[in-house]
């Protein structure tokens, strides 16, 4: 298959999946759940988690929180740079059939900053506190799904952000091994 035909086919599939997921948001209770998860994923959940780790575990919690914050700062720079560079319109701006169920935080779609942060924060936090995986993994998945259901991102935005977030967390954990002590 020629590259431009493959690219068009992938774009159509991405839009189709986005449209199907967005239609699920028409159900009030589903939209409500994903709206709350998305809002918590703006940072509120992660800031509360970092504060709770410090309060519950002192210096070790502070170390984990500092590592999460440092990783988050790099993630912020990465996703903002990628958004400026790619300038991909959000799904609701490209297809009138897709509805934005909540207001976007910025103009562009690629990659999903919420997902990138959710994945990187989850992986760093679980490296320090494996027992938190039962809470953080489902929350991170819910954040990622929320972005597509709410009409703010294409599935490919979320998948790319997942890969970037995982790579960033892995690099952060590797590089921080001498600075941050992972138990």
Features of the shown structure:
mainly alpha, 183 residues
Query: Which ranges are low-confidence, i.e. pLDDT below 50, for 5 or more consecutive residues?
Result: none
Shape field: globular
Which structural class matches the secondary elements?
A: mainly alpha
Overall pLDDT confidence = 89
What is the CA-based Rg, rounded?
17 Å
Along the chain, the helix and strand elements come as HHHHHH
Question: Helices and strands in order, then pairings?
Answer:
Layout: H1 3-24, H2 28-86, H3 91-94, H4 113-128, H5 133-149, H6 155-175
Helix pairs in contact: 2-4, 2-5, 2-6, 4-5, 4-6
How would you explain this protein's 3D organization?
Helices cover 76% and strands 0% of the residues. It is mainly α and 183 residues long.
What is the compact description of this entry?
With 183 residues, this protein is an all-alpha fold.
């Amino acid at each position: 298959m020629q590259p431009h035909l493959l690219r068009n086919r992938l774009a159509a599939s991405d839009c189709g999946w986005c449209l199907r997921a967005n239609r699920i948001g028409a159900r009030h209770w589903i939209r409500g759940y994903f709206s709350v998860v998305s809002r918590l994923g703006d940072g509120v959940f992660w800031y509360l988690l970092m504060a709770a780790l410090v309060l519950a575990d002192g210096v070790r919690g502070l170390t984990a929180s500092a590592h999460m914050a440092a990783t988050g700062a790099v993630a912020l720079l990465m996703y903002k740079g990628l958004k400026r560079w790619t300038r991909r319109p959000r799904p609701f701006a490209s297809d009138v059939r897709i509805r934005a169920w909540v207001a976007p935080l910025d103009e562009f779609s690629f990659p999903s900053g919420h997902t990138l942060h959710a994945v990187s924060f989850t992986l760093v936090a679980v490296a320090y506190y494996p027992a938190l995986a039962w809470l953080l993994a489902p929350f991170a998945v819910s954040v990622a799904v929320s972005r597509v259901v709410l009409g703010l991102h294409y599935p490919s935005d979320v998948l790319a952000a997942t890969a970037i977030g995982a790579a960033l967390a892995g690099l952060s954990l590797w590089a921080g091994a001498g600075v941050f002590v992972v138990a």
